[in-house]
C-alpha cells in the first residue's frame, strides 16, 4: 500500500481551510511520529500562514484586502501541500506494514486517496477539579459556542455556556460523580457550521 494524502484544497473555502489546517497543526504538534526537524519547522510555518490568512480575512475592508487574502491563501495551500509531501515520505517508509501506515496517517488528521478518516472530535473535555470541566477546541475560528447536559442518552435539556473568542473555556458548578455530555461549535464568518458530536466526561 502506498499512501497518497489528498487535501482537496482547490475545492475548499478559506473558512474550511482555516478550520482543517488548524486541526492538522493540532494533530502534528508534539506528534512523536513526525518529530523530524524539517517537519516540525514546516508545521510552524503552516501555523503562521494560517494566522496570516485569518488576519487577512478579518481585516477591515480596503482596496487591497482581497489581494492580501489571495496571497495568504496561496501561501497556506503551498505550505500544506509541502507538509503533506513530507508526511507521505514518513508514512511510506520501507519496512512498515499497511496497518502501521494507516496508523501514521490517522495521527496526522489528514485523509488519503481511497481512505477517509473516521470523524474525529476537534475539541476535548477533561475534568480538572471537583465539578469543573475544561473544554478545548482547535483554533482558527472567530468564536466558539459550548453546551452541556446530564442527559448522555438523548442529549435533551442542553445548557448553553458562555460563548468565547478563545478556543477554550471552563464549565464549573457541575454535579459530582455523574457523566455529562459536552458539545462544541466553531463560529466562522459567512460559514454555516454544525455542532460536533458530544464528548462524554465523568465529573468527579
Notes on the protein architecture:
The protein is an alpha+beta fold and 204 residues long. It folds into two domains: 9-108; 123-203, Immunoglobulins (Immunoglobulin-like). It has helices at residues 14-28, 37-58, 65-91, 98-108, and strands spanning 123-129, 132-137, 143-149, 159-160, 168-171, 178-187, 199-203. It has a four-stranded antiparallel beta sheet with strand order 4-3-6-7, with no helix packed on it. The protein has a three-stranded antiparallel beta sheet with strand order 1-2-5, with no helix packed on it. Helix 1 runs antiparallel to helix 2 (37-58), helix 2 runs antiparallel to helix 3 (65-91) and helix 3 (65-91) packs antiparallel against helix 4 (98-108). The protein is globular, with a radius of gyration of 19 Å.
Amino acid at each position: 500500500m502506498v499512501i497518497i494524502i489528498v487535501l482537496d484544497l482547490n475545492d475548499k473555502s478559506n473558512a474550511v481551510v482555516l478550520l482543517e489546517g488548524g486541526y492538522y497543526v493540532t494533530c502534528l504538534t508534539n506528534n512523536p511520529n513526525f518529530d523530524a526537524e524539517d517537519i516540525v519547522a514546516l508545521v510552524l510555518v503552516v501555523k503562521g500562514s494560517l494566522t496570516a490568512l485569518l488576519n487577512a480575512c478579518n481585516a477591515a475592508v480596503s482596496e487591497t484586502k482581497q489581494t492580501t487574502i489571495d496571497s495568504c491563501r496561496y501561501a497556506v495551500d503551498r505550505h500544506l501541500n509541502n507538509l503533506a509531501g513530507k508526511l507521505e515520505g514518513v508514512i511510506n517508509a520501507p519496512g512498515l506494514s499497511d496497518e502501521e501506515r494507516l496508523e501514521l496517517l490517522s495521527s496526522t488528521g489528514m485523509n488519503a486517496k481511497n481512505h477517509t478518516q473516521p470523524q474525529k472530535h476537534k475539541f476535548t473535555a477533561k475534568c480538572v477539579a471537583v465539578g469543573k470541566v475544561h473544554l478545548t477546541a482547535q483554533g482558527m475560528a472567530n468564536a466558539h459556542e459550548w453546551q452541556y447536559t446530564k442527559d448522555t442518552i438523548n442529549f435533551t435539556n442542553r445548557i448553553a455556556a458562555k460563548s468565547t473568542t478563545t478556543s477554550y473555556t471552563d464549565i464549573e458548578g457541575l454535579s459530582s460523580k455523574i457523566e455529562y455530555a459536552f458539545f462544541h461549535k466553531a463560529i466562522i464568518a459567512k460559514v454555516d457550521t454544525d455542532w460536533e458530536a458530544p464528548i462524554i466526561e465523568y465529573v468527579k
